[in-house]
Write a structure and sequence with these properties.
- The longest helix has 28 residues, at 144-171.
- The strands form 12 sheets. A 6-stranded antiparallel barrel has the order 9-10-16-13-12-17.
- The two termini are 42 Å apart.
- It contains 24 helices and 39 strands.
């Protein structure tokens, strides 16, 4: 690095490379690769600090909540590189992201590098040549309020996690974690499942008819029965979740009544009772925020939150879009001009309104720190212009952002909505169940778009409605007037059932968190990922299903720490962090109230909340009662259903398989599991060679057979002490049944691996079952078998013939697909599910994605297949790196935060 060079530090190497192209030879651009230091785990503290004020949290809670930071072991080399680069620089530009995390990274760099040259804070929202050159010439001071807010959040999360998680370890299960936002997100998913568990199905019927003026079938239109003899006919919206009718005076029709009315309608005199028409206007959606981008990418591209953010990060770092972590819907004046100009050029002047559109943010606690997410630059590149540079998920996401941005500055869509109400005078004698019916009312509506406006560029996706799609977009009604007679072309009775509340998807969970003011743009994807990684939630298709473990944890927190999982309280903490970021709240005073309590409002602090755990009944909090009284308990080895026995008898218990969702655990399902468990441990007989009992059991991972070993000891090679004999086990083959398996078959399973014979060199060839199916093994060379039956049947000649063939990758010859789906929304290629060497996977011919736990090829939906491929595609090619060795910190004194760059703010 030549003397007199300016050093620019950003977070990522990709960002550094792109910015370096724009700044020229007088600048060196380097990357910190994220945060360079953080709070250590207490176990990593120097020995002389473990008993001091930093020993419990690496935070001195009694000394102004002063944190103790250490440089990460895998960042020491990077810090040394940055220090060497700084020696030859005459200026330092800190160009990390302009949010709290970015500001904190910049401050930590100052603290560690201790520069003796002028320091400038360089900020930008997009990586284009113009934006970077403007940013170099228009720098600012470090924003210490943003640093305070980030540090407060980090301390808050450390205190919350380190105080509450041990409670879960002691009362629920070792190794669990609690988090300020993750625990609330888990509660949301659990509450929705509780609603589904309490839900009771209601059945109802209605009638759909097709009518035409003057018998002209070419003008026929459909209408729904909405009233009978002046009373409203009940639809799905009229029922409560307990299955009862909640709408006063609504009539719930059964099959007989609906069939009678349908028959009567076919013979009835039908006339138009009322006709109305009103203009229809639809406005475009605002440009993307982080939340709405994740929601729309989920709906249209089947990308989950983490995949969306990884892809958006790459687009931002390579100069295609603006900064992707934002809750602002604002566009700069230049961006508005670019969008309007491009819309005018592509669609015509009529498609652009006279004045620019301005969007206000409606969510709680919007920070408005950045622009909305949009294409980068003062003029936007069309998807066609970038098609040669990016592909796959990156191209699809860029196209989505481009369309949304352009559409946001386009004209309203215009049209008209016509509604018609009909009266059918039923013939005398129309009755069912002792009730006579004389008059039926039918309704129909249709919306016709006459000017597409912004719809020419983009239409926002919609989540599936619980009550079905009531709109009649595009249905055109014939011209009708009151009193016109109609002919009934068709009238059919239709039965329906109410649906439970839909489970959250990643997109709708993010939306719910945002609406409640919980979390921030930078945390949504991480929160959704964390609750899945921790085992609190798993995916079934696109739906998020809580585990029984999530129920137990949520119950404990609701009963004993209700404030910590209260939605409003959690949102208020986000609001308070915003106040700290704006300089309206003091960091230390706020943390003091949270941890030690607030005497002024008699609010108990976190420290006292977790102090007395004696009244927490671990057995009670781990018991989940379903809607019909079935009890599921969360034990050390997983969930199980329990039914108390008669006095003096042992309760009946059965393991609950992972694939059974909580809302599916009915009394009938519990009895089925208990009945199956009655065969669990069924004695098949005695092994004539060992004299041990052979039993058939049902385990968490499927049925198996094993032998009963009574504290026997055996010789262990190289060991001085005899070790206990481990029982042999063998999983049942796919075509075997736990209830009917016999001793002979069990002994054959326990005898595996089977020695088929030896090759010409005297090496044993064995046949056995493995994680990926049946196979042969000769030394370290394994070959797949086609069926499990071959394990017992294959001869030495057949085995040698297999080994004589060249080794094939995977499981031999190509197999037919397990399932076939439509075309992937990104690649446009047909998607299929296949059985591979490492289990089933889906592929579009370009991207392969392994099915996750809980994904069954037989029930896999098209949406889930697209989602798995989108997630894999967003990760890009896999690169394997050696894990970094974490070195112990040997600092003897805590690193106090110096006043470098923060002189304007005093800790208090």
């Amino acid at each position: 690095m030549a003397p007199g060079t300016k050093l620019v530090i950003v977070e990522s190497p990709a960002k550094a490379q792109k910015i370096g192209e724009y700044l020229g030879k007088d600048f060196r651009v380097d990357a910190s690769v994220g945060h360079i230091r953080d709070l250590p785990n207490p176990s990593e503290l120097p020995a002389d600090m473990k008993k001091g004020p930093y020993g419990k949290f690496a935070i001195a809670v009694d000394d102004g909540f002063e944190p103790y930071y250490v440089v990460d072991a895998d960042k020491k080399k990077k810090v040394a590189e940055l220090k060497r680069a700084l020696k030859d620089a005459d200026e330092l530009f800190l160009a990390t992201d302009e949010d709290r995390e970015g500001e904190a990274i910049a401050w930590h760099l100052l603290e560690v590098l201790k520069p003796k040259v002028p320091v400038r804070r360089m900020v930008f929202h997009e990586i284009t040549k113009e934006a970077i050159q403007r940013a170099v010439n228009d720098t600012r001071e470090l924003d210490t309020h943003l640093v305070d807010a980030q540090e407060s959040r980090r301390i808050l999360d450390r205190l919350y996690g380190y105080e509450v998680s041990p409670v879960l370890w002691r009362k629920v299960k070792q190794g669990l974690s609690a988090g300020r936002v993750q625990s609330v997100a888990t509660r949301l998913v659990v509450e929705r499942e509780r609603e589904r568990m309490a839900f009771r199905v209601a059945s109802y019927w209605d009638v759909e008819g097709e009518f035409a003026p003057g018998g002209n079938s070419g003008q026929g239109f459909e209408a729904k029965l909405t009233g009978i003899d002046g009373s409203k006919v009940a639809s799905g919206r009229d029922f409560a979740d307990d299955g009862t009718l909640k709408t006063a005076n609504a009539v719930q029709l059964d099959a007989a009544a609906a069939e009678a009315i349908a028959a009567g309608t076919r013979e009835a005199d039908v006339v138009v009772r009322e006709v109305s028409e009103k203009p229809y206007t639809r406005r475009p959606s605002a440009p993307f925020t982080t939340s709405t981008l994740q929601q729309e990418a989920s709906r249209k591209l089947r990308m989950n939150s983490q995949s969306t953010m990884r892809t958006a990060q790459r687009l931002y770092e390579n100069g295609y879009i603006t900064y992707m972590r934002t809750d602002s819907t604002n566009l700069s004046s230049g961006a508005v001009s670019a969008a309007r100009s491009q819309a005018r050029d592509m669609y015509g002047a009529d498609f652009v309104p006279e004045s620019p559109r301005v969007y206000g943010k409606k969510s709680k606690n919007a920070q408005e720190a950045h622009e909305a997410i949009r294409p980068a630059g003062d003029s936007f590149r069309t998807p066609a212009q970038v098609a040669g540079e990016i592909r796959g998920g990156e191209y699809a996401l860029y196209e989505l952002i481009w369309k949304r941005t352009i559409a946001s500055q386009m004209a309203d869509a215009k049209g008209s909505t016509a509604s018609v109400k009909l009266t059918a005078t039923l013939p005398e004698g129309t009755s069912a169940g002792g009730t006579a019916y004389s008059s039926a009312q039918f309704s129909a509506s249709g919306t016709v778009i006459t000017f597409r406006g912004f719809l020419a560029a983009y239409e926002e996706g919609r989540d599936e409605s619980r009550y079905g799609d009531d709109s009649a977009m595009g249905m055109r009604l014939p011209r009708l007037s009151e009193g016109v007679a109609l002919e009934t072309l068709r009238a059919d009775a239709q039965g329906h059932q109410t649906s439970p509340p839909a489970r959250y998807t990643e997109a709708t969970l993010v939306k719910a968190l945002e609406e409640r003011g919980i979390g921030r743009p930078s945390t949504y994807a991480a929160t959704v990922g964390t609750i899945q990684d921790r085992g609190y939630v798993h995916s079934r298709g696109s739906a998020l299903v809580p585990t029984w473990l999530a129920f137990a944890v949520t119950q404990l927190l609701e009963q004993h720490f209700p404030r910590l999982v209260d939605y409003d309280f959690t949102a208020s903490m986000e609001s308070d962090l915003d106040k700290i970021a704006h300089g309206e709240e003091q960091r230390v005073a706020w943390l003091q109230r949270f941890y030690f309590g607030d005497q002024a409002s008699s609010t108990e602090g976190l420290r006292d909340l977790v102090a007395d755990l004696g009244d927490i009944d671990a057995r009670a909090v781990s018991a989940v009662t379903t809607g019909d009284g079935t009890v599921v308990r969360v034990g050390r080895y997983g969930p199980y259903v329990e039914l108390p026995g008669e006095e003096g008898e042992t309760p009946r218990r059965a393991t609950v398989p992972d694939e059974i969702a909580p809302d599916e655990m009915t009394a009938a399902k519990a009895e089925e599991l208990l009945a199956a468990a009655a065969d669990d441990g069924r004695v098949l007989g005695t092994d004539p060679e060992t004299g041990r009992e052979i039993v058939a059991k049902n385990g968490r991972y499927g049925p198996y057979v094993t032998e009963v070993v009574e504290d026997e000891e055996g010789e262990t090679k190289g060991a001085k002490k005899k070790a206990k004999v481990k029982p042999r086990t063998g999983s049942l083959f796919a075509d075997m049944d736990l209830a009917t398996i016999e001793l002979d078959t069990a002994l054959r399973l326990l005898s595996l691996p089977r020695v088929v014979g030896q090759d010409a060199e005297g090496v044993d060839i064995t046949a056995q079952n493995g994680r990926y199916g049946p196979y042969l093994k000769k030394g370290t060379d394994s070959r797949s078998l086609e069926t499990e039956a071959q394990i017992f049947d294959i001869t030495l000649e057949e085995a040698l013939a297999i080994y004589a063939q060249p080794k094939q990758r995977g499981r031999g010859a190509a197999k037919p697909p397990l399932a076939e789906f439509g075309e992937d929304p990104v690649s446009g290629r047909k998607v299929v599910a296949k059985d591979g060497r490492f289990g089933p996977y889906v592929t579009d011919g370009e991207t392969n994605a392994t099915l996750r736990r809980g994904d069954d090829p037989e029930t896999l939906t098209e949406e889930r297949a697209f989602e798995l491929i989108a997630e894999k595609r967003s990760k890009g090619p896999t690169t394997r790196k050696k894990p970094a060795t974490r070195a112990k910190t040997t600092r003897k004194a805590p690193a106090k935060k110096s006043s470098t760059g923060r002189a304007s703010t005093k800790k208090s």
